[in-house]
Design brief:
The chain is mostly helical and 437 residues long. The chain has 15 helices and two strands.
Length: 437
């Protein structure tokens, strides 16, 4: 897996991702302490609102930001967004009011909603070979999981010698180093971005996404992942501390078990995906999440929670890590930023629904019922994925273009003015998926 780090451009981008993630992890800890410093016992409500603001920014901003940045040089765009995130993080230690937290978090997440899809869309151009790209996806999943484990420990160590306000300096440094690493490389040049009107560019990614059967199936899988993931993220502390009467250390161990499972799956996926098609792997992972939620309704102690969270971590990573492969093969290079932005927005819309659902049901109906309800949500999502994503699909699909002149360059390129076949994606010449598929 680590062989792809020999690619200088990718290795620097990966280093930029890891360092920025560590800085973001420090900010997460510092922001919780800042909220408590300002709001006291209401800190939980402040952080809950901040999380909702984050999701709303992710869902609403990503497609619009991508359309606005459609014709900008990618390296300049990424560096500018890193600098913007650094500027916002630099302002956080100086705020004194709750509304200022909300305003700065919104600005920070707007920049992240613009940065992340653009960053993700660059990787397939740097690593055109699908096996290399699959390994990059697994490394990215590992980076996220390691950040969840390392950042809290690093923050705890730093807090023994400095005040929490100084943790924001680590966040600023992370974004600045990320910007410097991106400046040091040359990104591949792609086809010219599409002109069109602003509305056309804003909705293009969504239209391609929703017109592609495998991506409609992916959206259903994202819902299954969000339902199970929200149960883990929102209710772990409730299960461990309120239900089992344990402490913060046990909460950390539970999250570590979930993260460890996710990392194990990320390490195994490249070889598995060389042998098994994406559809089977991802649907199996989502189905395992359903089973895990059902089992969760019957857990009776911490000793059973840890292996269940490990299992859910494996299923979580298995279901979602290959998604980049589907996006890569579902759009032309010039449309990849738009389709990655659509995935970013739609997947976070699933989380925006599932986060409050898991929290409110857990508080009002109890954990057992909540596990079962979230398992039903995941199960419905799996059924939808199976129905929306046809089995045995092939990249090349036979189709015709009766609307085109026989001399059209597309028909001449394929040597026919009738039925022909090639790797099919939604674009200007192919606005709908062939019925025969």
């Amino acid at each position: 897996m680590l062989d792809i780090l020999r690619n200088r451009t990718y290795s620097r981008l990966f280093a930029a991702q890891v360092i920025a993630l560590l800085g973001t992890g420090l900010m997460t800890v510092a922001l919780g302490l800042l909220a408590y410093d300002i709001a006291g016992a209401n800190a939980g409500a402040v952080l809950g609102t901040a999380l909702a603001i984050k999701m709303i920014a992710y869902v609403g901003v990503a497609p619009v930001a991508q359309a606005l940045a459609d014709n900008l040089p990618r390296r300049s765009l990424l560096v500018s967004l890193d600098l913007a995130r650094a500027a916002v993080a630099l302002s956080l230690p100086f705020i004194t009011e709750v509304w200022q937290i909300y305003a700065l978090i919104f600005l920070l997440q707007v920049a992240s909603a613009s940065f992340t899809p653009s960053f993700q869309a660059v990787i397939p151009d740097i690593l055109p070979d699908e096996k290399d790209y699959t390994r990059a996806l697994s490394l990215s999943r590992l980076a996220y999981d390691l950040e969840n484990l390392i950042s809290p420990m690093l923050a705890a160590a730093l807090l023994t010698v400095i005040g929490f306000h100084y943790l924001f300096a680590g966040t600023v440094a992370g974004f600045l180093i990320s910007a410097a690493l991106i400046v040091s490389i040359t990104l591949p040049v792609t086809s010219a971005a599409r002109r069109g009107g602003f509305a056309e560019r804003t909705t293009r990614g969504m239209r391609i996404y929703l017109a592609t059967p495998r991506l409609r199936g992916l959206l259903a899988i994202c819902l299954a992942v969000a339902a199970a993931g929200a149960m883990v993220i929102v209710n772990t502390v409730v299960i461990v501390q309120a239900r089992f009467g344990l402490g913060e250390v046990e909460v950390a161990w539970a999250f570590a078990a979930f993260g460890s499972g996710s990392m194990l799956a990320a390490l195994a996926l490249p070889r598995l995906l060389d042998r098994v098609e994406d559809r089977l792997v991802m649907i199996a992972g989502a189905a395992a999440l359903v089973a895990g939620m059902v089992i969760g309704s019957a857990i009776d102690g911490f000793a059973t929670l840890l292996p269940l969270w490990l299992f859910l971590g494996v299923a979580y990573s298995t279901a979602q890590t290959p998604s980049g492969r589907l996006l890569r093969r579902s759009a032309r290079p010039e449309d990849r930023p738009a389709i990655f932005a659509a995935q970013f927005a739609l997947s976070h819309a699933c989380w925006l629904v599932c986060y409050p659902l898991a929290g409110r049901l857990g508080a009002s109906l109890g954990l057992e019922v909540t596990f079962l309800v979230m398992s039903v949500v995941s199960a419905v999502a799996v059924v939808l994925a199976i129905r929306l994503w046809p089995a045995g699909e092939t990249p090349e699909i036979p189709h015709e273009h009766p609307e085109l002149d026989p001399a059209h360059p597309h028909l001449r390129a394929h040597g026919t003015d009738g039925a022909h076949r090639h790797a099919y994606v939604i674009d200007d010449l192919h606005p709908r998926w062939p019925r025969a598929a």
